[in-house]
């Protein structure tokens, strides 16, 4: 605990100094200011000793885990414990990590008499995703006689977790979840009769020969038809590239963030759609090796586990190892699954490595590759006319990159992999649309 003189003590010393100024020329009047000075000194020392021995700051604590959404206002609940039940007025401030902005530098907290506990909500807004510690509780109160201000800084053991902000996608996703069915998701009309066996029934005129169950027909002595239903539960995995290219910056609605930030937001939205549809879902994140791997599960608890596993990821500085990812997926996923790869294939070397190893997965799984459109990557004769020569050369470079991407997309399509280049504004909504189309066509 530290201490410093209060305003009351400074005013007393100032008053004594004013008395000492005229008495300095008259030695007989020295007692006019020496006696008050001695009394103030004794009272000051007594007040400090009494307060340090008898006073105790209230205990301050926060919840073990406080959750926020990036760029969304939230608050930290601060609890005060006052076992003595003594009335106390505090000058309180909460020291947060630098990524948290708070419009309240300090507040006055009054603990009433005979109140063992009290709490306040400290508002703040995080600007970066991840896990943060190092929260400090700073308390200041007056001494017994009010001549000193006592201060105490207490480190708190709580953890602040900042998750991706899914509210930024609500405008694009509102139409996809408008018509609600039994599970709160949009009703989807399936194409075809279904592929999952349901039951056997008696033959009816019009049934095809491919629908007849010949063994049951031979056993019962009359035609028996197989009945199929649409696949109700599918397995979906989102595979996220968190290597060096995921640290590229993109700007949306005036907010600059990394490509990995967009990947994580879109992945959580896609997993939420899978949860609404009743499918099993999991996540994989990799750079030069697999960093996160959660097996497919279902329900709100598994979605929370996926969110906990993804929210602390940061872009790496290494080159992705696609061979390691393919080995891991082939070893862990025995059942046919839908794989959403969120990666950047703008580097020709990385694109060649992906095109060499990914076809091994397409033999067993249904793979969809999605990447964000880079700045300026578009066909040459699109948009407004070029205003100057420099802009024309920039558009030529963008056209060449767009043509390279088209060649890669055609090469992956021949291997059974669907690759798309999506705009940043509709990235999450486009992923959900692709997922719902796969379910409607029963392509898995």
Describe the protein.
- The chain has 444 residues and is an alpha+beta fold.
- It is elongated and about 130 Å long.
- The model is unreliable at 179-187 (pLDDT under 50).
- The chain has helices spanning 7-23, 31-54, 170-173, 214-220, 259-277, 300-310, 322-332, 348-357, 359-362, 389-414, 427-441, and strands at 2-5, 59-61, 65-69, 74-81, 88-95, 100-101, 107-111, 117-126, 130-132, 135-142, 148-156, 159-163, 196-202, 224-229, 235-241, 249-252, 255-258, 280-286, 290-297, 338-342, 366-372, 418-422.
Element layout with pairings:
Blueprint lengths: L1 E4 L1 H17 L7 H24 L4 E3 L3 E5 L4 E8 L6 E8 L4 E2 L5 E5 L5 E10 L3 E3 L2 E8 L5 E9 L2 E5 L6 H4 L22 E7 L11 H7 L3 E6 L5 E7 L7 E4 L2 E4 H19 L2 E7 L3 E8 L2 H11 L11 H11 L5 E5 L5 H10 L1 H4 L3 E7 L16 H26 L3 E5 L4 H15 L3
Parallel strand pairs: 3-12, 15-18, 15-20, 20-21, 21-22
Antiparallel strand pairs: 1-11, 2-4, 4-8, 5-7, 5-10, 6-8, 9-12, 10-11, 13-14, 16-17, 18-19
How would you concisely characterize the structure shown here?
The protein is of the alpha+beta class and 444 residues long. 33% of the residues lie in helices and 29% in strands. Helix 1 runs antiparallel to helix 2, helix 5 runs antiparallel to helix 6 and helix 5 packs parallel to helix 11.
Which short descriptors sum up this protein?
Rossmann fold; 444 residues; 22 strands; 3 domains; Immunoglobulin-like; alpha+beta; 6-stranded mixed sheet
């Amino acid at each position: 605990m530290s201490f410093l003189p209060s305003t009351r003590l400074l005013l007393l010393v100032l008053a004594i100094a004013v008395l000492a100024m005229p008495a300095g020329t008259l030695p007989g009047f020295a007692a006019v200011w020496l006696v008050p000075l001695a009394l103030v000194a004794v009272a000051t020392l007594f007040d400090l000793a009494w307060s340090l021995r008898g006073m105790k700051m209230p205990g301050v604590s926060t919840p073990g885990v406080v959750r926020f959404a990036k760029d969304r206002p939230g608050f930290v609940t601060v609890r005060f414990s006052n076992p003595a039940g003594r009335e106390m007025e505090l000058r309180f401030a909460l020291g947060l990590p630098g990524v948290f902005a708070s419009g309240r530098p300090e507040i006055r907290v009054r603990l009433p008499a005979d109140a063992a506990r009290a709490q306040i909500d400290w508002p703040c807004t995080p600007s970066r995703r991840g896990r943060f510690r190092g929260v400090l509780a700073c308390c200041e109160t007056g001494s017994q006689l009010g001549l000193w201000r006592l201060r105490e800084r207490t480190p708190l053991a709580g953890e602040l977790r900042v998750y991706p902000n899914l509210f930024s996608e609500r405008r694009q996703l509102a139409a996809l979840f408008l018509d609600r069915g039994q599970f709160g998701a949009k009703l989807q009309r399936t194409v075809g009769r279904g592929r999952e066996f349901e039951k056997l029934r008696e033959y009816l005129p019009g049934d095809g020969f491919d629908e007849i169950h010949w063994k049951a027909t031979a056993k019962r002595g009359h035609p028996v038809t197989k009945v199929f239903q649409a696949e109700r539960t599918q397995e979906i995995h989102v595979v996220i590239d968190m290597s060096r290219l995921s640290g590229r910056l993109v700007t949306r609605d005036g907010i600059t963030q990394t490509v990995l930030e967009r990947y994580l937001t879109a992945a959580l939205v896609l997993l939420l759609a899978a949860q609404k549809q009743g499918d099993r879902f999991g996540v994989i994140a990799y750079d030069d090796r697999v960093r996160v791997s959660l097996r497919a599960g279902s329900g709100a608890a598994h979605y929370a586990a996926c969110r906990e596993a993804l929210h602390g990821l940061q872009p790496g500085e290494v080159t992705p190892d696609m061979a390691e990812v393919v080995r891991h997926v082939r070893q862990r996923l025995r059942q046919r699954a839908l794989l959403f790869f969120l990666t950047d294939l703008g580097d020709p070397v990385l694109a060649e490595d992906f095109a060499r190893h990914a076809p091994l997965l397409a033999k067993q799984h249904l793979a969809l590759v999605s990447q964000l459109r880079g700045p300026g990557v578009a066909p040459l004769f699109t948009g407004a006319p070029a205003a100057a020569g420099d802009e024309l050369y920039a558009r030529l470079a963008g056209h060449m990159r767009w043509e390279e991407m088209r060649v890669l997309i055609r090469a992956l399509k021949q291997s059974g992999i669907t690759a798309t280049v999506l705009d940043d504004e509709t990235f999450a909504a486009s992923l959900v649309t692709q997922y719902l189309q796969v379910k409607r066509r029963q392509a898995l």
